[in-house]
Amino acid sequence: MLYKGSDFPDLPAGTVNYFGFSIGTPAATAASGNIKVYMVNTSDAIYSRGTTWTSIISSPSAMALVYDGPLTIPAASGTFNIMLQTPFNYTGGNFYLAYEWSTTTRSAVSAIYNTNNELPASLVTVTATTLAGTATLTGSSAFRPVLILGYPTPGSDMSVMGVFAMGKMALTSGARSIQARVKNTGTTTLTNRTISLSITGANTFNTSVLVSSLAPGAERTVAFPAFAPTVLGSNNLVEVSVAADDVSGNNSKQVNMVVTPSTQGYAQYPTVANALPVVNTAFEGNYPLTNPTPATRNANFLAAFRATGPTAVTAVNAYVPGPAFSPNINTTGVTVYGVVLNAAGVEVARSANKVLAATDLDKMVNFPITVPPTFSNNEVYYIGMAQPAQALPANAPATIYPMGAQKENSGLYWIQAFYRSAEGSNTAPVDLFDAYKFVLEAEIGTVNFTWTGATSTDWNTASNWSNNSVPTASSDVVIPSGVSRYPVISSGTALAKDLTIASSASLTVNGGTLEVKEDFTNNGAFTATGGSATFSGSVLQVIGGTNPSTFHDLTISAAGASLAGPVSVQRVLTLNGNLNTNGNTFTLLSNATGTAMVVNAGGVVNGTAKVQRYINPALNAAAGYRHFASPVTSTTVSDLVTGGFTPVVNPAYNTATKPGTVRPFPTVFQYNQSRLTNDSAATMDFGFGWESPASLSSALTPGRGYSVNIPASQTVDFTGTLNNGTVTVTGLGRGATAESGWHLLGNPYPAPIDWDNITVPSGMMDAVYAFRSSSAYNGAYAAYVNGVGSLTGGVIPAMQAFFVRTTAPVASFSFTNAARLTSYQNPSFYRTTETRPLLQLSASKGQQQDEAYVYLEQGATSGMDNSFDAFSLPMGAVRVFTLAGTSQLSINGLGYAAAPQQIPLVVEGVAGAYQLKVEQLLNQFQVQLEDNQLNTMQTLTSATVYSFSHAGGSTANRFVLHVGARVSGIAEAVKSMEVKLYPNPSQGKFQLQLSGLKASSAEMTITDLAGKTILQKKVKANGGTISEAVELKAAKGIYLLQIKADQQVITRKIVIE
């Protein structure tokens, strides 16, 4: 006999010690005689050893004689074995087995041997009555006597007997447990063995379970933590494995799983062309069912499933056997229907009747369920194909039932079959082992979760829902009208697949997260005063409805979303995928509490958007100049129109000898430094650079700034395509006058930017200046340079314009996404812990105020330094600055000096009573204020307020700041230490370098802007230098790095992108 390795995929290579047979029906008496057994490994796929006994055992290669001796065949059913005299080394694959049997005593009636008739019909047997005669060949036989091969028993051997997973798993079915059967096939007890599950392909999943103890010969079914697929695909390889042991060939098994949109079943049909629907794959669970024979052949063909979450059965797919499966089956003209039963066997739903035609045979047939039933979580149900009571076709033999039924079992059998008793008896299906297992599939859908509000307004309370359970990611949720209480999401995560808010109904989110897997339809009222909404589907999602939807924070998944109604965002829009507006209104809101921003994390907004900028009256409740920049492309001056403001332009202003007399006087200006000349005092002045746009249709160029005299409490909205990526402005010249080189630029993004993350090109000074209006024509510039200034943390809000200055012509200046903030934080959080000696001094008269800064840093000088200082721009009714030579500075960085330094301080404004107030005095900064007019000297403290009278104009030569050296030798330590971080911004990995250190180590602490410690460790110095690779596992945002060493603290800003 030729045995093929493909017929025995689990047969391991190795030493065979014995072989035997299995007797089904024994003979009346035992038989005795002598037997010779021959075996040989072969690559033959078809029989090729000749037709005579001599050729069979010798050609083309000699078969090994492994046994030559007595044999007694018992007169009892069961197995019997023969210990081989010469063990056979089975190498795997195909092999021949031949035996020569001569009997001395035997029964008149032969025994019947157990066989396997399900294997392919390719076995060839050779029989002969005499050894010298010509043998009779029986080709293409499906006959297989059960053959027993024995191996040496290993000491430590755990076998994976089977993997039980769905052949088809619906994406909507939720999480299911995959199981496996393992057996101790060794001689020693196995302890603490890990059984691993790995899913690779379209979906990935890895987990394991521990078997604490398993005795020799014992078996165990293990259940793994539930797996929930997220991606459709047919290439999901499910593998269960154990660690290598004495026998490696049985340490793993694999099955394939298909993840479908809504179809689930145990088999995959068809797996190959013309494959028969014999199920040989997986199981759902172990159900305790009885085992009688059916009372009648009028039956159901069923499969058992267990619901994971509320489940609706919408259709049944059933394989209808026909002549291709077996010539004994002919079901043409038979009436059948799809059926759904509950766990007790009660029919709860069915399809319409179908009369089977020849075109239905040997294929899957779909039976839509008329009224889909629903099942709750963990509830068992049956689906199948049923027959009404009817006569069978005339040629149907008594041994063939028209339909069978299947279920999965956690034992060694992959699948068992069972029948249901006659239709209408309402009894549970019963087991019946059968060789044929046909394919059944359930088409499942999610069950609507309808809000009732029976208990409270809490979304997460089960009794508030029609199904008495909280919706999951596979639940279609409906918020109907007419209930007494409507849902509120305050914490945690509220899940839904499709979410519909009916007309006159409402949903409120004031905390937590609303996560939607598919579509969101708002036909009622959706209110979001806090929390977030995440659209996390794997396919394009639709957001809309007849009524506007306003989200607090909105996140779009990589699959993207499409609008089907008006939508707006109050705080942060995070785009992992694209958001398509489809012509619907999409608005980024702005009000007194904040302005919305966009994080482009792999996606963009496709289509037109509105970006609002609210003018907060807190600093100036009246009209005044506000500096704007456009966050969109292709918009014009006319887009500045609001309900209470219409922009005015007049190009005559640009050529007038006396521009101030031009009427109508423009309310919109841009700045052009090339207008400044040395022709007169007027043309040399900074203010001469202002000019009016040519018309209301003039473009608002992204990256450029505009000054608009507009009332407070107005909301300007810019309409167009949102700017994203690199935005470049060109032609930043430097004229010949003392006031030349100023350029009004603007944040081009619908998000704040961090000036510290801007690459300043050669020829441009580091300082930036943003105007803050305080009255119709007055205000002050908030300057920022080198981490110092009143522009908080160097953060420039969305749509904010600002001045920069060039020292030489700059061909181009670029904004990039690297400068954009990616998290929404209160601006006060951006104040870093200052470690340098610093004085912040304000000068005020009534409500008008200006500020000046003086600080110490190694490398700065007493002159004008491009990287340390910022000019004071003339604009407000009150102005305060220090002098560095003739340069008027709002921020003045000084180097460390052994002797005190004298810094002139100037206040400008109309006559009246003034105050100089210390706003900040940090890090042992010793400063004295000298008033030469009153001949006084006062040491400044953090509480100092100095009042004085001013005759008007400038206080030049009146005030002097005497800046002393730092005490305790700390100045020298600061001089010598240098901190570098690169790259910064980073993806979370950066290098810290600290040089000039006297101590042997330093303490490094990283906190978020709220002060929470993210990382803290001690880093060692080598020769006064620290070089440390740092990995920060934290969300995108801004963090503070603090180094404590040599009796000082150094703080730097870290940006994680």
The geometry reads as: elongated
With helices defined by DSSP (H or I, 4 residues minimum), what is the helix count? 3
Q: What's the N-to-C terminus distance?
A: 69 Å
- Gyration radius, in Å: 43 Å
So what's the oligomer here?
Answer: single chain
Instruction: Summarize the main sheet.
Output: 12 strands, mixed
Query: Into which percent range does the helicity of residues fall?
Result: under 10%
Protein name: T9SS type A sorting domain-containing protein
Organism: Adhaeribacter soli
Domain CARDB: 176-243
InterPro entries: CARDB, Secre_tail
How would you describe this protein?
By secondary structure, the protein is mainly beta. It is 2% helix and 46% strand. Strands 66, 67, 68, 69, 70, 71, 72, 73, 74, 75, 76 and 77 form a twelve-stranded mixed sheet that branches. Strands 34, 35, 37, 39, 41, 43, 45, 48, 50, 52 and 56 form an eleven-stranded mixed sheet that branches. It is elongated and about 140 Å long. The two termini are 69 Å apart. Mean pLDDT is 82; it is low at 117-140, 270-299, 395-437, 826-832 and 965-975.
